[in-house]
Amino acid sequence: MEKLIISSCICGAEVTKEQNPNVPYTVEEIVREAKSAYDAGAAVIHLHVRWDDGTPTQSTERFQECVDAIREVCPDVIIQPSTGGAVGMTDLERLASTDIVPTPEFATLDCGTCNFGGDEIFVNTDTTIENFAKIMKERGIKPELEVFDKGMIDTALKVDKKGLLVHPLHFDFVLGVQMTATIRDLVFMVGSLPPGATWTATGLGKNAWAIAAATIAMGGHVRVGFEDHLYIEKGVLAESNGQLVEKAVKLAKLLGRPIANPTEAREILGMPPLKK
Ligand code: KMH
Ligand code: ZN
């Protein structure tokens, strides 16, 4: 079977040190977590950044500082800045993460609006999605199409029909936020993809590792990290993103999937080699 790409969402925008003291805020902590994930086998770092007090930010300067420092210790890793940012940020604010130098090779593109609990709404209108897609295409940034339910796959395909996306398409299913995270959901989502698309999945909540195992068995790619997973097993907080990646690597070994390094991950995703 094709090699497995492991993405690590090391930080997120919403999780806090109160929930797990190992969630990184400072540049040093973010670098520590990126390195632990990379050393354990992650080819992709899905990146949010914070100010030192934990406040999420899309500041270009803060992203630049973090990306430069991650590059020092993970020279070839694929760094994927978030353009989702945190709930309530403006589109302009969210896109600032992509203004770093060099221009990122990969970034998220959220494909719909969703409920984030309580009164929190993560807003992505059709206009926002098309604008983000257009900007990413113009700048040569490969979008990871973040889909929180099946309707968002349909939205991505509408955007594709307008010629705003470059193939092969790559989707990331974030299960357990807007829709449940069950194997039935996963099979339904995979069955809704167009031919030739690649996909990653992550499951939040009690089925997290069942979703990871099913994804590995089905030929998809896996995302793990503090943004989605604060626990390594029921009731036990994860010590690091590396520990979560190690668990995904163990599952892959059991299921006979070798792990893709960043160079191999770029080939699988149809991305050009890293510019030196
Ligand atoms: N923090 C969420 C509001 C992304 O990174 O593109 C959005 C998010 C998705 O995490
Ligand atoms: Zn994110």
Largest sheet: 8 strands, parallel
- List the strand order in the largest sheet: 5-2-1-12-11-10-9-6
Q: Tell me, rounded to a whole number, the average pLDDT.
A: 98
Order of helices and strands: EHEEEHEHEEEHEHEHEHEEEHH
- Principal-axis shape equals globular
Structure report:
By secondary structure, the protein is α/β, with parallel strands linked by helices. It has one domain (6-269): Aldolase class I (TIM Barrel, Alpha-Beta Barrel), CATH 3.20.20.70. 37% of the residues lie in helices and 19% in strands. An 8-stranded parallel β-sheet has the order 5-2-1-12-11-10-9-6, with helices on both faces. Strands 3-4 form a two-stranded antiparallel ribbon. Strand 11, helix 7 (208-218) and strand 12 (221-224) form a beta-alpha-beta unit. The radius of gyration is 17 Å and the shape is globular. The two termini are 30 Å apart. Zinc ion binds next to loops. Zinc ion (ZN) binds at residues 9, 12, 46, 48, 82, 84, 227.
Per-chain topology:
Elements: E1 6-9, H1 27-40, E2 44-47, E3 49-50, E4 56-57, H2 60-73, E5 78-81, H3 91-95, E6 106-110, E7 114-115, E8 121-122, H4 126-139, E9 142-147, H5 150-161, E10 170-175, H6 183-191, E11 198-203, H7 208-218, E12 221-224, E13 231-233, E14 236-237, H8 241-255, H9 262-268
Parallel strand pairs: 1-2, 1-12, 2-5, 6-9, 9-10, 10-11, 11-12
Antiparallel strand pairs: 3-4, 7-8, 13-14
Helix pairs in contact: 1-2, 1-8, 7-8
This protein binds (5S)-5-amino-3-OXO-hexanoic acid (KMH) and zinc ion.
